[in-house]
Specification:
mainly beta, 2 helices, 43% strand
């Protein structure tokens, strides 16, 4: 097992598959780190290898005046409330999930920098990867305007060799 900054892809060797699932790619909090991740993945992929990203499609309609407060769970022994603030310039959402139980409250912060599928495609192209397929989920549902999530599959293609 290797621990580290996944934007650096700190392992040696070549791989046929690299994947980042469940919105984890958005834990890279700057566009620069996200671009760096694509570039480092591309360096580690063998020709024909794939980079798979599973992520949500941003829904900015969730926010009113750049923020949202919503009840996530109400149970007999706990209540979970989410407080989030949206920064559209940095494409960033900072959230605090507050879990209240009889013995007190606990805070669970979450920060992310979302990217639109088209922005991910551009990051891929900059790294030498090509979008092979995009689905609306793991069951290969079509990716359509109403899709809330996507599974995007990028492929490392052989560089063209000049002909003489």
């Amino acid at each position: 097992m290797t621990l580290g900054d996944f934007a650096e892809v700190g392992v040696e060797g070549r791989f046929s598959l690299v994947y980042v699932v469940f919105n984890t790619f958005f834990a890279l909090l700057t566009q620069e780190d996200q671009v760096r991740c694509f570039a480092n993945v591309a360096r580690r992929l063998e020709a024909g290898g794939t980079f798979v990203i599973e992520a949500f499609v941003p829904d900015l309609s969730r926010f009113t005046f750049g923020q949202i407060t919503q009840t996530r769970h109400v149970g007999s022994d706990e209540v979970v409330i989410e407080y989030s603030r949206h920064d559209p310039v940095r494409q960033r959402v900072d959230s605090q999930n507050v879990v209240t139980r009889e013995d007190g409250a606990r805070l669970y912060p979450v920060s992310l920098r979302y990217a639109w599928p088209s922005e991910l495609d551009l990051m891929a192209r900059l790294a030498g990867l090509t979008l092979r397929a995009r689905y609306g989920g793991w069951n290969r549902q079509p990716f359509i305007q109403a899709s809330e999530t996507h599974v995007s599959i990028y492929e490392k293609t052989e560089p063209e060799t000049p002909s003489h």
